[in-house]
Amino acid sequence: MSSPTPRRPINLGLNDGTYCSQHVIDLLQTFNTTTSLRNYPDPDNSALRDAVAAECGCAPENVYLAAGSGPILKQAMRLIIERNIKASPIRAIKHLLRQPAYPIITPVLTYFKVPLKAEQSNLAVRFLPLRAEDDFRIRSEDLTAALDESDGMVYLPNPNNPTGRLLVDRAQIEPIIARYPRSTFWIDEAYVQYMPPELHQPLVDLVMKYPNVVCSRTFSFAYGLAALKVGYFVAPRSLIDPLEAGVTNYRIPLLCEQLCVAAMEDQQHLDLVRRTCAEARALFAQRLGAYDFLRVHDSHANFSLIEITDGRSAKELCAKVLERGFKLKTFVPVAEHRFDHLFRITVGTPDENAALMDVFDEILGGPTR
Description:
Elements: E1 10-11, H1 22-28, H2 46-56, E2 63-66, H3 69-86, H4 89-96, E3 104-107, H5 113-120, E4 125-128, H6 140-149, E5 153-157, H7 170-179, E6 184-188, E7 213-218, E8 231-234, H8 237-245, H9 254-264, H10 267-288, E9 294-296, E10 303-308, H11 314-323, E11 326-327, E12 329-330, E13 342-346, H12 350-364
Parallel strand pairs: 1-11, 3-4, 3-5, 5-6, 6-7
Antiparallel strand pairs: 2-8, 7-8, 9-10, 10-13, 12-13
Helix pairs in contact: 1-9, 2-9, 10-12
């Protein structure tokens, strides 16, 4: 007699969006015959490229499509840094001597794969402090001090992951972009669709205004299409063309392309996503905020950052949560920085969110205030 298959935990640690548009489901249901999937996509994925260009206010030639934003980060970041190092004999010599030549400048608490991969590739990283009293925003003086010390590639997830807060706004960052033309500003807008339009307008339009700005996005989060693994990069032709030269045509499968286009056509879906995420974050704040040693930080994305204030280990707490069927996100050390007191919860379905809060009550013994 075989043993029962262990129940797979509900993963609320990856930030993948919970819901896709009904337009996507309706289109998916039209692929219902044995010949529905017989054809290749357009070699250049023109339909999706055109849709992205229209939304971002750029030409289709300024759009690079890839299987998620991960490959974009890996391919384009290396291209930008290597090109800028090779453009200067002084930088090239510094790089050969393993000295900072064109460092990545990024917040100390951000998408951890960027600084980790940089360190593994012997690239210098210069960290900018983030302070809770500043709502985890970057201070202009910290950024300009780093840029005065050295040109570099400024990586800004906006809103940031894992804080869910804006790092910069237009009024703050645009003068800095103009002031430092030899530095590259990478604005990662993976979560920007979660931002209420009245609070923040995306910065992707700056790509067409400044040659030192690039922007990346994904369909995995607000559009709820992580299963498709599609992302895009908006940049000057001087970066797009060499990226295109290194890959083949037919990059995005036909089904994925059409589903992404359908998702972009349903802007009401984003209103629904913003509302459901706000409700979930309010639940997290109410239930976890009832413990005097847990601080739930405000967020504008589909996740909440939780801080443990009494010295307990986030990894130990999340391990107990995992034993009860939910996987959450804890953070590995980056350079000398440790985040043992922090964990992140991704918004799930209402039932998942409520069940997770009950798990915390079970582990922690009920509210302390």
